[in-house]
Specification:
The chain is α/β, with parallel strands linked by helices. It is built from nine helices and 18 strands.
Length: 364
């Protein structure tokens, strides 16, 4: 039986259905005072945003092809780390100054360490290469968090679902792995479909092997690209589905779950959502520089071309890291955390925009 201390507080996964993480973050922003007192009284404690320095205690090779490394982070003084809940992530500030977000994939009950895993993506933004090349045992990094926008709500302790079904694509296994650990420890009925290009590129296969019949591994080279029906095999009305992977996978699962009544769907993507119904507009920076924002790109995406140091994290409008003061103009808000009082003077440049042909002046 779960105790009150074991239950995730509202921000970490109790209450609503369909895309619950985003819904709960909206609720948290609108009632911050009440939520703060609630979190201090029950469940994982809140973590201040000042950041903390952690040490790379261990480094492991998590995929056969070497493309994924795991890092175990500990406190330099050996003290306990703040509690977290499956689905949480850390903002990791790399030695170069770049910041990247990585899901926690260890056991949430272990307060002595945090574990993350990073796939190397050559030709990307450089963060993954820096992790692979620079962060050896003994190195230190500054982290912020944990924070959670993809919280697990266990059946009987935050969810009315009868069982859990997980869908993971490639490195999307990282938040799912922590959820599997919790489900197994509590005796919850669960299943996992895990997909990727080939077995050599899939991390944590050895770790998942202990669960035998609970896990189905499908690789493109042997089984072809899986259909939504394959990804959701065995799912019935009243189940809860947690999906993390590439956008096409998420889109396929989302469309299929709509046909399953009373089925919860919770998703997390590791890439920004495409701009929908956008229009071209103009941004003026504090130094007078004018920047054109195309209809299909975000302000953040465009600005990072010339200013890679612009602060950002989730790129989906729920964390607030990229919030910028608006000096003039009227933003078109698409985030999930700013209040009505904040809207005239602030915007999240990862998702929010402006009307066609207008200009925003930003304090950047």
């Amino acid at each position: 039986m779960s105790t009150t201390q074991d239950l995730p507080p509202h921000l970490y996964g109790r209450g609503n259905r369909h895309d619950m993480g985003v819904t709960l973050v909206i609720a948290a922003a609108s009632a911050l005072g009440r939520l703060t007192s609630h979190l201090s009284a029950r469940g994982p404690e809140r973590v201040e945003d000042a950041g903390r320095v952690l040490t790379v205690e261990r480094r492991t090779r998590e995929s056969l092809d070497g493309s994924v490394v795991g890092l175990v982070l500990t406190s330099p003084d050996g003290g306990p780390l703040p509690r977290w809940w499956p689905g949480a992530h850390l903002d990791v500030y790399l030695p170069s100054g770049a910041m990247r977000t990585y899901s926690l994939c260890g056991d949430h009950r272990d307060r002595n360490e945090y574990r993350i895993a990073v796939r190397r993506i050559d030709g990307g933004g450089g963060g993954s290469a820096e992790v692979h090349d620079v962060l050896q045992p003994g190195a230190t990094v500054t982290v912020r968090g944990p924070r959670n926008a993809f919280p697990l709500a266990p059946p009987g302790a935050g969810s009315t679902a009868r069982r859990l079904h997980f869908v993971a694509g490639g490195i999307g296994i990282t938040p799912i792995l922590a959820m599997v650990t919790l489900a197994e420890s509590r005796g919850i009925d669960w299943s996992l479909v895990y997909t990727g290009r080939d077995a050599a590129s899939l991390p944590f296969l050895d770790e998942l092997a202990r669960y035998e019949d609970h896990v189905t591994v499908l690789t493109d080279d042997r089984h072809g690209v899986p259909t939504a029906a394959t990804l959701l095999a065995g799912v019935e009305a009243g189940d809860a589905v947690y999906c993390c992977g590439p956008p096409p996978m998420i889109a396929a699962v989302r469309a299929a779950v709509r046909a399953l009544p009373e089925t919860e769907l919770h998703v997390e993507r590791f890439s920004p959502a495409p701009v929908v119904d956008g229009a071209a507009f103009e941004v003026q920076l504090a130094d007078g520089t004018l920047v054109d924002i195309p209809a299909d790109r975000s302000v953040l995406d465009v600005l990072r071309e010339g200013r890679p140091q612009v602060a950002h994290s989730c790129q989906q409008g729920f964390c607030g890291t990229c919030s910028v003061r608006v000096l003039a103009g009227e933003p078109e808000h698409r985030d999930t955390i700013l209040t009505d009082e904040q809207h005239p003077d602030e915007m999240l440049i990862c998702v929010s925009r402006a009307a066609a042909g207008t200009r925003l002046v930003l304090d950047l």
